[in-house]
């Protein structure tokens, strides 16, 4: 018996321009996209995966875009939604969550004895091989979940399946940042992220998970490259079959390894920014513990190297210089985990405005790189000062540092607030900075203002540390005075740069 069709019942939460929220199926979300502000979900991973799933549907329904001209036409005049509706009608039988032959996103050939709790579907819940802090779900008695939750988690496994080996391959770059430009309505957002195929042959070779027959298990070919964007966005990294309970919910799943992903240099993931490794070539940029994505914001902006996310590059090409066409923001979401043991460290969702000057010919990425480099330079001075303080407090100037001292010195540094205070203060200024990159704003004015923010953040962070230790013993005061010299040198350098950049007032 077929039950719960995603076309009608997937029920992602959508937000309308007036603030109302409603749960809609896939058909309604796509056909009403111009009247929807955005889709939402409590999980950043599910949210990113839902966008990729909707894009996969559009790629297959529209069979394109196959070039930038077609993409611009749809952005200007609207997508041919009659083709979307016809496609969903044609493939409706493949979108049943519970079905004997074609259960959506699943494989009915998974053996009966490969049973896991429903928590295995999602990275944010406890599983037998992955324990999540503050999630107290008992995997031995996890209870039931409703079908719409499991459907969204199935979509999430296509993008964010992590792996620690044992034949379990991860999804395509689950550790990477996913960058999704946002418009003032869902239709624009989907257009921004619907990257044209490289050519028509790639489009014809592409296919989504639900269009294929279920694979026999074990897989004869465990790894392969993606055929196209729809294939990439619906990657079956796990072979799953939901076990429906008599009440209609899900308490357990059949669960085994799925397809391994072979990266194809001619088809990078369009949502990911890349960096150049001298040995391995282009690698996806990843979230790092204790480091927000804004510190690598220049990597999200286009430049001749082509390392920025294709979604951002495409969004700017679509918008051009047309008024009101620029993306309002970019969502940056994803997770961080340790591949050897599949230990999930954290997941994130961050949002940033895109500088208005990107609509022109200005090299915003180069300017942004310089500004962020000045902040990193100030942070290195703060780190050196913290090291000096911790070292002198440890050895009290009486001897050389030994290997045994290193752990204690690092422990002292971890308790100091200087670095954390510096970056948290500067982050607020960074969001303001993004709005200052307008076509008419002089780059030296922006740099001058930013350096003042860096100076202020560094000074405030060190003053907090000084206040914390000023009532300490003599050795604390001595260590403080010595370390403060490093900070003062950095502040003097910033003062000199600011003076050079400040406009000279003409005498009357």
Count the helices. How many?
Answer: 15
Major sheet, described briefly?
3 strands, antiparallel
What's the average pLDDT? 89
Q: Please provide the count of β strands.
A: 15
Gyration radius, rounded: 26 Å
* Strand residues, percent: 5-15%
Q: How helical, in percent, are the residues?
A: 40-55%
Task: Give a short summary of the structure.
The chain is an alpha+beta fold. Strand 14 (329-338) and strand 15 form a beta hairpin.
Explained architecture:
The chain is of the alpha+beta class. The chain has 2 domains: 3-354, no CATH class; 364-501, Topoisomerase I, Chain A, domain 4 (Orthogonal Bundle), CATH 1.10.132. Helix content is 42%, strand content 14%. The strands form 6 sheets. It has a 3-stranded antiparallel beta sheet with strand order 3-2-4. Strands 6-10-9 form a 3-stranded antiparallel beta sheet, with helices on one face. The chain has a 3-stranded antiparallel beta sheet with strand order 7-14-15. Strand 9 (238-244) and strand 10 (250-257) form a beta hairpin. The chain is globular, with a radius of gyration of 26 Å. The relative contact order is 0.10. The model has no long low-confidence stretch (mean pLDDT 89).
């Amino acid at each position: 018996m077929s039950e719960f069709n995603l076309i009608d019942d997937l029920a992602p939460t959508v937000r309308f321009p007036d603030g109302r929220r409603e749960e809609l199926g896939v058909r309604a979300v796509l056909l009403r996209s111009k009247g929807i502000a955005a889709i939402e979900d409590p999980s950043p991973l599910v949210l990113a995966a839902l966008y990729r799933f909707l894009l996969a549907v559009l790629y297959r329904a529209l069979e394109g875009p196959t070039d930038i001209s077609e993409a611009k036409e749809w952005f200007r005049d609207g997508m041919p939604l009659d083709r979307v509706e016809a496609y969903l009608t044609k493939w409706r039988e493949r979108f049943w969550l519970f079905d004997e032959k074609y259960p959506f996103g699943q494989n009915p050939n998974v053996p009966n004895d490969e049973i896991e709790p429903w928590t295995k579907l999602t990275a944010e819940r406890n599983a037998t091989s992955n324990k999540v802090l503050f999630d107290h779900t008992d995997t031995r008695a996890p209870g039931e979940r409703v079908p719409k939750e499991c459907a969204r988690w199935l979509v999430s496994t296509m993008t964010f399946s992590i792996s620690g080996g044992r034949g379990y391959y991860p999804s395509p770059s689950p550790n990477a940042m996913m960058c999704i430009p946002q418009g003032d309505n869902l239709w624009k957002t989907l257009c921004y992220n619907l990257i044209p195929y490289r050519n028509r042959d790639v489009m014809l070779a592409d296919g989504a998970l639900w269009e294929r027959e279920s694979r026999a298990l074990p897989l004869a070919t465990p790894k392969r490259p993606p055929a196209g964007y729809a294939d990439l966005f619906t990657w079956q990294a796990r072979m799953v079959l939901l076990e429906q309970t008599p009440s209609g919910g899900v308490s357990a799943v059949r669960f085994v390894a799925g397809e391994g992903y072979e990266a194809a240099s001619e088809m990078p993931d369009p949502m990911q920014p890349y960096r150049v490794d001298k040995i391995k070539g282009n690698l996806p940029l990843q979230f790092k513990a204790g480091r927000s994505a804004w510190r690598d914001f220049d990597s999200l902006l286009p430049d001749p190297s082509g390392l920025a996310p294709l979604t951002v590059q495409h969004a700017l090409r679509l918008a051009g210089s047309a008024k009101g066409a620029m993306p309002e923001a970019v969502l940056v979401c994803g997770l961080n985990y340790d591949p050897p043991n599949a230990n999930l460290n954290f997941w994130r969702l961050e949002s940033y405005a895109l500088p208005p000057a990107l609509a022109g010919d200005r090299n915003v990425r180069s300017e942004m790189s310089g500004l962020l480099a000045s902040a990193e330079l100030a942070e290195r001075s703060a780190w050196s000062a913290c090291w000096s303080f911790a070292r002198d407090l440890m050895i009290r100037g009486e001897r050389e540092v030994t290997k045994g001292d290193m752990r204690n010195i690092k422990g002292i540094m971890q308790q100091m607030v200087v670095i954390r205070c510096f970056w948290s203060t500067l982050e607020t200024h960074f969001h303001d900075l993004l709005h200052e990159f307008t076509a008419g704003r002089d780059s030296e004015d922006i740099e001058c203002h930013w350096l003042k923010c860096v100076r202020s953040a560094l000074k405030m962070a060190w003053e907090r540390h000084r206040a914390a230790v000023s009532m300490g013993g003599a050795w604390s005061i001595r260590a403080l005075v010595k370390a403060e010299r490093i900070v003062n040198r950095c502040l003097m350098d910033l003062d000199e740069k600011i003076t050079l950049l400040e406009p000279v007032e003409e005498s009357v």
